[in-house]
Amino acid sequence: MTRRAILFVADGHRDDFLRPDLCPNLAGFAETGRRFHNHTGNFPSATRASAASIATGCWPGTHGLHGNTMGLPGAGGTVIHDVGDPAFVGSLRAAFGRTLKVPTLAERLAPVGGALIASNVSPGAAYFHDPDGHGHVVHRVGSFGPGRCPLGPDEAPIVSHDAAGDMALCDWFCDRMTGEDGSALGVLWLSDPDLSMHADALGSARHLAGVAAADACFGKLRDSVDAMRAAGDDVLLIACSDHGQETVIGHVAIGDELVAAGLKDGPDSTEVAVAPQGGSGLIYLAGDGVGRLDEITAFLTAHPHVGEVFPGAAMRAVGQAEGDGLAIAFSMARDSQENENGVSGRIWVCTSDSKPGKPVGRGSHGGLGRWERHPFLIAGGGRFAPGTNEHGRTRLIDIAPTILRHLGQPRDGMDGLALPHD
Ligand SMILES: [Zn+2]
């Protein structure tokens, strides 16, 4: 009997939308598997650093990928980069001589069956599952095999960035995983419902259509897992999301406000650099900026649209760490009010010229809001007790050690803990 693990991620799917009327396949899996009701996302509650945490079992402060945007040394201080850009893996390597600071599942599993990651979110979020090329990463912008050798269109599909593309990628992934050369680990990461939640109000027909589309993909995948089990494989199936979303109240350009307050030299200055993360932000200090930590912390703490502020070592409380220029993390303010569709949770969003943020009234995420940080999680197969519920807190970093435990591999050097079976 061959042990294998399949991880299904429906990006952005809030735990409270995992309902039988909206997503019968996932809700059915929750009934027959073990559901984790108190699953919590990362800080920032954003996809790219969360993908790296799922891939490594470590907090961002440990793996070194800080958020959806992050600062790298440059221009005499810190320059903010978009982590979603396909070129960012190379930029990170050029800055520090490495990509992530810790090994990924793809690296750990390369000698024992390998990993196939198929992702339809941003290129950066896909590539940080395996930035150094130990397994196979399939993405519409470019796919890679071991050694980061590019895969041609006959070896990997090029799908659209929408629900139809999610299903096309799912079909290809299921064929590949049930075929003769199926990997020990398969990861399928869909763009929906996150894409649909950003495109309209939470609870809208568009959001619900995105939930249904992701659920249809899960139904197809579950049938493939059933076929793998019928053929004799011992398959652990994990279904989850990486974060949720809340409704945008308004926007604040924190970097511009620091300039106006005399705490940053200019809009493009590099001694103080703000990396927006939707419902939160990260601040990098260099040179003359280092001495402004206390003043900037006081400015943010007094700001009516900023929530919690974590200067220096206090960032450890949210899984970030001082170093590489990162000096302050902050969440934006929020409330628990409902939108026009009765969906609770609203957030302020941190913006910059290059990151204008999602429009008011639509969904977004990135901060410490209850629903931003409440993705769903279900595990079935392996030794997970069927039809059971866990109410203790679990985290994104607990997924990788759970997969390694099932595959009989060591799980040293991880911040997370394998999920309880019963
Ligand atoms: Zn996401």
> Cofactors and ligands present?
zinc ion
Range of strand content: 25-35%
How many strands? 20
Roughly how much helix do the residues carry, as a percent range? Answer: 25-40%
Largest sheet: 8 strands, mixed
* Side-by-side strand order of the widest sheet: 6-5-9-1-10-19-2-20
Radius of gyration: 21 Å
Describe this structure in words.
The structure is a single chain. The chain is α/β, with parallel strands linked by helices and 422 residues long. The chain folds into two domains: 3-65 and 100-244 and 373-406, 3-Layer(aba) Sandwich (Alkaline Phosphatase, subunit A), CATH 3.40.720; 248-362, Gyrase A, domain 2. Helix content is 27%, strand content 26%. The strands form five sheets. It has an eight-stranded mixed beta sheet, sandwiched between helices. A four-stranded mixed beta sheet has the order 16-17-11-18. A hairpin with a 3-residue loop joins strand 12 and strand 13 (280-285). The mean pLDDT is 97.
